[in-house]
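Quick one: structure tokens for this chain, please?
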Amino acid sequence: MRNWNGWTAGVVAASLIAVSPAAAQSVKLTGIGGQTATVAATDLAAMPRVAVTLQLEGGRSEACEGVALTDLLQKVGAPQGKALRGPEMADVVEIAAADGYHVALALAETDALMTAKKIVLADRCNGGPMAAPEGPFRLVVEGDLRPARSARQVTSISVLRLPAAP
């Protein structure tokens, strides 16, 4: 093995394997009350599928598919439909990515009774699974004119309650 400043190629290779996308083959979900669930690619494949178009920079787009964010949030008890009122209108959904990128959405904007816009955790684009650096999971927010909220390599999704105004 080759030695670079005290590091062997084996150590470097082991480090790269430890942070490879294969380590992020699931997404952790957390609800307001601390409920947790984990969904893997096989779980997503078995759930109802939604098609959505991802708008990219320069006017390009990709046809993607995945699971509606609201279906995933249901797994951790997030209020939906008519239960989404009052203090729940200030709840937010935080999406975290492997590279430290974070996106926040209002919980209300994920609900089908509040908006017709699709928000999807995609696991397929352009007819196949997504590889790094986009996948294996990417948030797609339909209607966004640029993909700034379409976080790549999603690792966790959490529902948070903002404190009440004084």
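Residues 1-23 have pLDDT under 50 and may be disordered.
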